[in-house]
User: Which sequence fits this backbone?
């Protein structure tokens, strides 16, 4: 979808020649596959003039293509900003942009939306790249100044505006920070307009990126855009141990993936009886220990006995109803669910493939046989011709 390596000044990819409709899904963060790109518009309908533009990391915004430029995904464009201009990459165009506007900004007014000025020229792109190269130095300098001023804040990212007239510092902090002196010091050092923007820990992780415990790139960096609250009840419903080291993500909060399968667990648990009820038997009361949602098993333990007893939800409901009627079963063995043992596939060393010296032995035997044959040939009497 318009990779950076195949874009040209005119905005037409020269690598895949698909103009942003490649089936790979794109190479950028939070990229969107334009599955409507090859669908022709009805006759008489004008193309949608709102375009989604992506800036550094996951920052995106909508702009109006007032000049009717032939834009495609991956084009580098110059857009209007508060003072000056900025440069971004087109991420969504056409009817898919209309869907994105309804989803993300339903109250967007097209005539009040900022405009796309033109496709970026080479000198503008050079200034844009120059600003990117200055961001690392600016971040180190700002962190040093914040420490010297004793500010309890963490500056995690810096973004230069493409015209090099404004720098935005993204930071995280527990409370309110008085950074007026910091802004003065930064303005004196860099001679540009300074803006401080506070973000949350989840937004910080999405901007910085990283690899999760699953071995894949972070969801918030690649595709996740809305950060919903995650509570410990999500881990309890999924029968997960409440270990903060395993449940916390790179941002230090509970992992967003705990919500992915939560609805399925909630639907499945509806058919299970309540776990706070004790099962009364003649041998004693049985207490609920754990639940296996997918195998539909509930494990109970009798007081004074070792081991767990597996019961199906239907059997548990049956015993609870018997207890309400005043009937107390002798024990739970008659209701125990028999767990089928999985067939273990054995392994045998059939031809000696586990032996480290299997090749050495065969070579020695071959050499011995060859020597014996040579000796026989030497000692054998020669027949007269």
Assistant:
């Amino acid at each position: 979808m318009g990779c950076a390596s195949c874009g040209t000044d005119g905005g037409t990819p020269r690598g895949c020649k698909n103009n942003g409709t490649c089936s790979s899904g794109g190479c950028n963060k939070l990229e969107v596959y334009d599955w409507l790109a090859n669908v022709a518009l009805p006759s008489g309908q004008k193309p949608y003039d709102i375009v989604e533009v992506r800036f550094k990391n996951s920052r995106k915004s909508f702009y109006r293509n007032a000049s009717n430029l032939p834009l495609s995904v991956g084009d580098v464009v110059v857009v209007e900003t508060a003072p000056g201009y900025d440069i971004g990459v087109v991420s969504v165009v056409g009817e898919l942009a209309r869907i994105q506007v309804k989803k993300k900004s339903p109250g967007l007014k097209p005539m009040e939306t900022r405009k796309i000025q033109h496709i970026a020229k080479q000198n503008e792109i050079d200034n844009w790249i120059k600003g990117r190269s200055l961001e690392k130095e600016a971040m180190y300098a700002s962190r040093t100044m914040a420490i010297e001023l004793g500010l309890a804040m963490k500056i995690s990212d810096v973004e230069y505006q493409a015209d090099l007239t404004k720098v935005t510092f993204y930071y995280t902090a527990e409370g309110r920070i008085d950074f007026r002196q910091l802004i003065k010091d930064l303005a004196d050092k860099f001679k540009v307009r300074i803006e401080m923007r506070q973000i949350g820990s989840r937004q910080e992780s999405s901007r910085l990126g990283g690899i999760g415990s699953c071995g894949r790139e972070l969801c918030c960096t690649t595709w996740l855009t809305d950060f919903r609250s995650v509570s410990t009840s999500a881990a309890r419903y999924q029968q997960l141990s409440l270990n903060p080291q395993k449940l916390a993500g790179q941002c230090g909060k509970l992992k967003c993936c705990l919500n992915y399968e939560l609805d399925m667990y909630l639907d499945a648990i509806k058919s299970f009886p309540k776990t706070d009820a004790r099962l009364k038997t003649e041998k004693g009361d049985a207490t609920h220990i754990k639940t296996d949602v997918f195998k539909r098993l509930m494990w109970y333990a009798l007081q004074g006995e070792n081991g767990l007893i597996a019961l199906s939800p239907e059997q548990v409901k049956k015993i609870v109803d018997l207890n309400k009627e005043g009937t107390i079963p002798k024990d739970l063995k008659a209701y125990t669910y028999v767990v089928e043992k999985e067939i273990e596939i054995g392994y045998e060393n059939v031809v000696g493939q586990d032996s480290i010296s299997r090749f050495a032995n065969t070579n020695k035997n071959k050499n011995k046989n060859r020597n014996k044959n040579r000796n026989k040939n030497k000692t054998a009497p020669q027949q007269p011709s």
Q: What stands out?
A: Residues 1-25 have pLDDT under 50 and may be disordered.
